[in-house]
Amino acid sequence: MRDAAPQTIYLSDYKPFGFEVTSVSLTFDLDPTATRVKSRIAFVPKPDAGGRMFLHGEKLKLISAQIDGAPVTPDLSDEGLTCAVPDAPFIWEAEVEIDPQNNLALEGLYMSNGMYCTQCEAEGFRKITYYPDRPDVMSIFTVTINGPHPVLLSNGNPVSAADGHAEWHDPWPKPAYLFALVAGELVAHPGSFTTKSGRTVDLNLYVRPGDEGKCAFGMQALKDSMKWDEDVYGREYDLDIFNIVAVDDFNMGAMENKGLNIFNSAAVLASPETSTDTNFERIEAIIAHEYFHNWTGNRITCRDWFQLCLKEGLTVFRDSQFTSDMRSAAVKRISDVIELRGRQFPEDQGPLSHPVRPESFQEINNFYTATVYDKGAEVIGMLRRLVGADAYANALDLYFDRHDGQACTIEDWLKVFEDATGRDLTQFKRWYSQAGTPRVTVKDAWYAGNYILSFTQNLKPSATTPDPQPQVIPIVTGLLSPSGKESVPSQVLELTEATQSFTFEGLPERPVPSVLRGFSAPVVLESELSEDHAAFLLAHDTDPFNRWEAGRGLARASLLAMIRGGTDPDPKYLDGIRAVLGDAGLDPAYRALMLSLPSQSDLATALHDAGETPDPAAIWAASEAMREAQAQHLADLLPGLYADHQITESFAPDASQSGRRSLANATLSLLGRLESPERAQAQFDAADNMTQQLAGLAVLLRQKAGKSALQSFETQWKEDRLVMDKWFGLQVMQAEPDAVASTAATLTGHADFNWKNPNRFRAVLGALATHHAGFHHASGAGYRLLADWLIKLDPLNPQTTARMCSAFQTWKRYDADRQALISTELDRILALPDLSRDTTEMLTRIRGS
Ligand code: 0A1
Ligand code: ZN
């Protein structure tokens, strides 16, 4: 039977819980299929508690329940229990039995490779015991674990440990979603950090035996994060110990449980031989992200799940600042914008569009989205831009002072900024409530020595935001003289009206504008300025983001023209990137980014925005033609660039080396279009690190010369599950559109395709879904294959299934034949009688009426 009729939860229905929870004591007697959990919880009724109490609980076998020592018989339902309770403080005790081994949803207490671990955000704690499983109920937890495992961990500080027994106490009140428990045969990679007030904190990274060699980088990233949060935000760590555990089976990247972060092993284990530079950077960022949650999320948490962006938007913003400081700010900003356009813009412009703070949901797990996280971070960035860095720092200090230990709302957050700066943020708040990507048109005029920039916000009603109002949009703008010098440095133009002009006086000659520098707001900027303007900025802009953006704009315009009319690539674009690539004074990582093209799905979005129907095959062909043109146009530069960016010193995963590798590998990829496979094969054979090995293999596969390399890679890395995920994924990514679905299908028959592991599932089927021309192949084979696997996964792991449904979110952009093929698949999945609430909600929203 399908879960009970999906219930919609509304922000406007929020009601506080009727009881305080003053302490929680839990005892776990671990057993793979029959773990016993005893809880002892002190409740204090609030004046309007009403004599009855509801506790969440799902998939629990209730063994016994008592209030103040006397047995009680609560009313049980699929969602929890209701019980008559005293109107004075009382102690609730219960014993339940759970089955971690058969919990393949990876939510609550489950097992991964023989080890016990938990995932409680958002609503997993209710699968562990009966509890008011809501973030505004914060309490102090003491946890006892009994089990025959050398390592027994929970939140907080260790109280006692003996063979088969451990006790933990967390002195900081926390919501249940931050609870964690780990038990298993793990080895610790230890470390230590001295806080700015001189306290020593023990650090441990726990991994499976065999993974000890992949811990050093993560440990250093943790120490760097702890130091950065002290230096930049004044935030000190607050327990004696900080543990991280790596787990192979995990639905997301990682989880910020208090003092016991649990990580997908792909998001923490790193070594030069097995991890690419991209992996290193991502791992550093995720470790920082989870650590930063200690203050933004844990010490100050969310009142309810509608406020998710309160912790996620802010923490993503903080981890982006960290990466900018540790590496290159320009490269980080460009990468973030590529990601935003690739994931958040399609979400915001399609059937899954929702405000940064949604107002209703059926399954909260479906709202861990690019909008909440990445647009949520952009909103914080805009706020900082509008009030300035100093006022932002003051406001954050006030936020931590005022709200430490509380469960807060976006209203609390904005009030802090209003109080700290005296600014009225009523209009700014629309960023949290209006869905959709704002579109802004810019045009300019010059007369009588005045230069005028005019902006228009095009307010398009949508289902979630039927009556959009103008938003406050900070548009960072600088002006260049016609000779390419900065004549008016960057300043924030605050766009608050639907149409608004800004006048610059006293300029000697008509300037060239550089608008939306640093991508100062998450909008689509429609420029009525010419392509010559873009070519000029590509050559001269002093703002690195906008210089890159100018190149990207030219590439996009040229690709669109090629798709529409079979024209040749724009020589202005090719000349422009040639100049940038030849400029040895520029950061190699930045030059590599200059070579990247807008993704094929970005091009489909652009066509759709222009009222056209994207043809994936034509988009693929144009992108390939543009790559060929890049290779031809830069042919004489490429061998030198490749040679000059080889690294002779020993491997370091830092920004400088990874930048050089990324430029060398971008040139290798272009050279692969001009040359026979020797160079790529030589790189593959000689590689002593995964970045070089994988880049060589990718080129060989595209050259159809990768068969033996693929085999030797498999033989070399058969035992390494994280590297094998790359082996699976790369074959799909590098396939020609005609072969994508068949390649993915063949791989799902491979003996090592363990589909119950989310990383392996995503390696193959996630790669299928992101290969634009392959997934949207006219045969419909890509759609069918993905649907087949979603149908298989849903009964086991609804969360990962539902997330992967977003591959279909853009379906209404395509032609009638493709729409018919997709709707057949959507209907096939939706017709399943036992489809999970997660997947039902996602597909119903995507399918529309
Ligand atoms: N809070 C974590 C992400 C996370 C969210 C949900 C999860 O299970 C449903 C797991 C992890 C973060 O932001 O890193
Ligand atoms: Zn987070």
Describe the structure.
The structure is a single chain. The strands form nine sheets. An eight-stranded mixed β-sheet has the order 6-5-9-3-2-12-15-14, with no helix packed on it. A five-stranded mixed β-sheet has the order 17-18-19-21-20, with helices on one face. It has a four-stranded mixed β-sheet with strand order 29-26-25-31, with no helix packed on it. The mean pLDDT is 97. The chain contains 27 helices and 31 strands. It is of the alpha+beta class and 849 residues long. Helix 20 (721-733) packs parallel to helix 22 (758-770). Zinc ion is lined by residues 289, 293, 312, 315. O-methyl-L-tyrosine is lined by residues 119, 121-122, 251-256, 289-290, 312, 365, 368, 799.
List the helices and strands and how they pair.
Layout: E1 9-10, E2 19-29, E3 35-45, E4 52-56, E5 61-67, E6 70-71, E7 75-76, E8 80-84, E9 90-98, E10 108-112, E11 115-119, E12 139-146, E13 151-154, E14 157-162, E15 165-174, E16 181-184, E17 187-194, E18 200-207, H1 216-233, E19 241-247, E20 254-255, E21 260-264, H2 277-292, E22 301-302, H3 308-326, H4 329-348, E23 360-361, H5 370-387, H6 389-403, E24 407-408, H7 410-421, H8 430-433, E25 439-447, E26 450-458, E27 473-480, E28 486-495, E29 499-505, E30 512-515, E31 524-527, H9 531-540, H10 544-565, H11 571-581, H12 588-595, H13 600-609, H14 616-633, H15 638-644, H16 655-671, H17 678-686, H18 690-702, H19 707-717, H20 721-733, H21 737-748, H22 758-770, H23 772-775, H24 781-793, H25 798-804, H26 816-830, H27 837-847
Parallel strand pairs: 2-12, 18-19, 19-21, 22-24, 25-31
Antiparallel strand pairs: 1-23, 2-3, 3-9, 4-8, 5-6, 5-9, 7-8, 10-11, 12-15, 13-16, 14-15, 17-18, 20-21, 25-26, 26-29, 27-28, 27-30
Helix pairs in contact: 1-2, 2-3, 3-4, 3-5, 4-5, 4-10, 5-6, 6-7, 9-10, 9-11, 10-11, 10-14, 12-16, 15-16, 16-18, 17-18, 19-20, 20-21, 20-22, 21-22, 24-26, 25-27, 26-27
